[in-house]
Amino acid sequence: MGKLLVVGSVAFDTVKTPFGEVEDVLGGSATYFSTAASFFTEVDLIAVVGEDFPEQHIEFLKGRGIDISGLERRSGKTFRWKGEYSYQLNEAQTLDTQLNVLETFRPKIPDHYRNPDLLFLGNIDPELQLDVLNQVKRPKLVACDTMNFWIGGKREALWKVLEKVDVLVINDGEARELGQDSNLVKVAQETLARGPKHLIIKRGEYGVLMFNEKHTFGAPAFPLEMVKDPTGAGDTFAGGFMGHLAATGDFSDAGLRRAIVFGSVMASFNVEAFSLDRLRDLDYKEVETRFREFKRLTHFEDLS
Amino acid sequence: MGKLLVVGSVAFDTVKTPFGEVEDVLGGSATYFSTAASFFTEVDLIAVVGEDFPEQHIEFLKGRGIDISGLERRSGKTFRWKGEYSYQLNEAQTLDTQLNVLETFRPKIPDHYRNPDLLFLGNIDPELQLDVLNQVKRPKLVACDTMNFWIGGKREALWKVLEKVDVLVINDGEARELGQDSNLVKVAQETLARGPKHLIIKRGEYGVLMFNEKHTFGAPAFPLEMVKDPTGAGDTFAGGFMGHLAATGDFSDAGLRRAIVFGSVMASFNVEAFSLDRLRDLDYKEVETRFREFKRLTHFEDLS
């Protein structure tokens, strides 16, 4: 089993959807990612929280077997995000962002974290992503996420990161902005020519596409009767994806496809409840059952 | 090989997309449908055109082996539609609709059409769809399409149609309006409880979903480097779907899944050029090749 390192955010989220609202619940990209990945492998977490971060959340992460010796606690308040979703649940409207301790965050990698097999660079400033890359021995596989804010504002630093990563995981709006084209096949050609070997484009309720030099893989999202809160779906997807890759060490096209389906499965559970609540009571048998359902969902017979 | 009957529109389309524009080109739901279906089976066509409909289009349809003895020619002008697409090619903005001879169209089924194996009721007034159903011996499989205009304006007549059909083929916006819910799984449950055995939801560039009592099937759209004009994609999908079903007579879940992929393949070709131009020079070998590519696109290994 490979060691997986993630750097990202730990947050308090206040979220309203047509199906309810929650205040200051556990959130953040590194939280969703590491919790999802912990179903498959050991995870080392790098993030920062403030003095207001309660012991119960620490205990939850520890309980998932996540190594939190890289979770820095600083004076000040924890990062806070407030968002709202309409009935069309695919995109959040951000109502408020308070960076707090995240504003001056400089990831420091503990010595025993410096030799990961896989590394996930969550959505933070591309300069910090580069900084993390410089602090570790080159992992077997590096993946990263980003967002429009950095694509627009730190384009050059971002391309420097992308030259060094194996997998870029972004949503379709971000992909179009990065590639400056509305056609995702052209965006993929452009992006793959400049860095990452694999481009994974998340499309929310519409599923996911993966492009690499030789192959394209497409999968729908798992159709759900109840989507309560899409917050964290992308990070949960990435966690399931990287967690499964860490567990198998199979980075072939077939291995990546399976990992994408595991990521989709984890995301499909996560959106069934607010915060990480569905992942709290999920067991691995349910994950495998839904993977098999996913196979039945997408299977059709080839021509003879 | 089963006989397939389609009723729908034949039109002149004026279309502008970011990749070009065309004026008064061949279009209409029955045109796209029957041309796509003609790659798989014999098609009987019911539609109406005006005195302005040129011989070259008649010859094209005949050349595809389509029986056009049900193509009524009336005094007046042919139905005209004018639309425009932005870079986000998923939805057209209708600029002008001139019903012309379609306004007083009452489908009359020639005697030798009255015993079809499969029937597709294209997007026309639900009362006319009922009228067509009453004029034929109950086919082995009936599918229909509709649109928001009828869902809003002739809801009761539409439900009467849906009670009598096996497959409803609509897009996701229409599905949400029909089921009065934003969640497609709930829409499917509601719809299937009231009539059709299978609900197929077209999602444009995001692919397609099929729901029936026992199964759900999901497939992405084929990723294309060039989408020039999405006009007619939905009808081309339906034509490939029904044409393949007519050719095999296999209406099992597995048969329907394969037919959906053939429909997706035909639609993926159609959007590569304006009007039906890509279908004009397409041969069946290319259809099979893309079907196999579609299998590679979506395949992943199941758990052992």
Concise structural overview:
The structure is a homodimer of 304-residue chains. By secondary structure, chain A is an alpha/beta fold.
Taking the sheet with the most strands of chain A, its summary is:
9 strands, mixed
What is the percent of helical residues of chain A? Answer: 25-40%
For the CA atoms, what is the radius of gyration of chain A? 18 Å
Count every beta strand of chain A, where a strand is a DSSP E run of 2 or more residues: 13
The ordered string of helix (H) and strand (E) elements of chain A is EEEHEHEEEEHEHHEHHEEEHHHH
Quote the CATH topology of chain A: UDP-N-acetylmuramoyl-L-alanine:D-glutamate ligase
The class by helix and strand makeup of chain A works out as alpha/beta
Q: What general form of chain A does the structure show?
A: globular
> For this structure, what is the CATH class of chain A?
Alpha Beta
Q: Any low-confidence stretches of chain A, pLDDT <50, length ≥5? A: none
Q: How would you characterize the overall build of this protein?
A:
2 copies of one chain form a homodimer. With 304 residues, chain A is an alpha/beta fold. The first copy, chain A, has one domain: UDP-N-acetylmuramoyl-L-alanine:D-glutamate ligase. The first copy, chain A, has 11 helices and 13 strands. In chain A, strands 5-4-1-8-9-10-11-12-13 form a 9-stranded mixed beta sheet, sandwiched between helices. A 4-stranded mixed beta sheet of chain A has the order 3-2-6-7. The first copy, chain A, is globular. At the A-B interface, helix 7, strand 13, helix 9 and helix 11 of A face helix 7, strand 13, helix 9 and helix 11 of B.
